Amino acid sequence: MVLGLDVGGSKTRARLAGHGDVLDVEGGSASLSGVGPGRAWSVLDGLVRELLAARPGPVEAACAGMAGVDGPLQVAQAHALLRRLLPGVPVLVVNDARLVLAAAGVEEGVALVAGTGSIAYGLRRGAEARAGGWGHLLGDEGGGYWLVREAVRHLLERWDRGLPPGRLQGLLDATGCTDPSQLLHAFHRRPEAGTWARHASLVLNAVPTLATAAGEELADLAVRVCTRLGLGGPVVLAGGLLLNRADVRRATVRTLRRRLDGVEVRCLEEPPVAGAVILAARLISS
Q: What is the spatial distance between Cα 187 and Cα 149, in angstroms, rounded to a whole number?
């Protein structure tokens, strides 16, 4: 059996696969950068225990795709956590965007992911490059948190001018705030990305032009990676925002095709955790 983990900014998906059987479970975020090592351990330990209780047996290899894991320090921290979780088991740690290409069966191409945050990751002839994925405090343009933050800024600008909330009254209602000043304090009091990204669809419905802005930002990430690697595609779209919001997806594809003539764009059909299982199985075969 092999274990795959897809650790995003809002949720964690775990899959145990082997003997012709697949079992999936889901929990909260176990992102080290987002929730810290203590909470990450608690989430992962609970998910693995749940899987092994349902399908007892030794795990031969594991792969974790983790949001925010890029440099040597973050990879080492993730490895230490997973070795504690699965002692003696070979473990591969990659950025969660890497799972998208594996799940899509693409050996060379670009994964463009937009959910809570955003990132583009590319692979060509063993060389890799990425753009974005800086986290919600520094970037993640086009992602769910970014969209809601833009809406909050718009509300505050209207408030500064003495104007009513207008189309974004729904954001105040959804967050339990009576006016933009309360929203301002709530935003600083609870800055966690997942707290705000869940309102992205509400914001897009209220301000449709934000879909175009998000699409341009997201496409730019993929263009940067294609340029660095000399790739002409394909670009694989993934993440809840790109897959579930047709308006953001259309804007992204339109911009990609304008800037990368003839580029192939496809949507991920398998969940990214399937890519984690594929990469884990390669640890055994290698």
A: 9
DSSP state string for 222-242: HHHHHHHHT----EEEESHHH
Q: How far is CA 226 from the centre of its chain?
A: 19
Would you call the peptide bond into 58 cis, given omega within 30 degrees of 0 as the criterion? no
Residues 6+ apart with CB under 8 A from 238: 97, 100, 111, 112, 113, 114, 267, 268, 272
Which of 41-45, 251-255, 270-274 is least confident? 41-45
Residue 145 near residue 197, CB atoms below 8 Å: yes
In the predicted structure, residue 284 carries a pLDDT above the cut 90: no
What the block records as the tokens of 253 is 């594809």
**Is residue 250 within 8 Å of 213, Cβ to Cβ?**
no
How many beta carbons lie within 10 A of that of residue 103, not counting itself? 26
Q: What is the mean pLDDT of residues 14-37?
A: 83
Q: Indicate the Cα dihedral angle 45, 50, 53, 54, nearest 10°.
A: -150
The region of weakest confidence among 86-95, 126-135, 225-234, 269-278 is: 126-135
Could you give all domains of the chain from N- to C-terminal order, each with its CATH number? Answer: 2-103+271-285 (3.30.420.40)
64 forms beta bridges with: 5, 93
Dist CA 234 CA 115 (whole Å): 20
What is the bridge-based pairing of β-strands 235-238 and 109-114? Answer: parallel
**Cβ contacts of residue 185 below 8 Å, gap of 6+?**
none
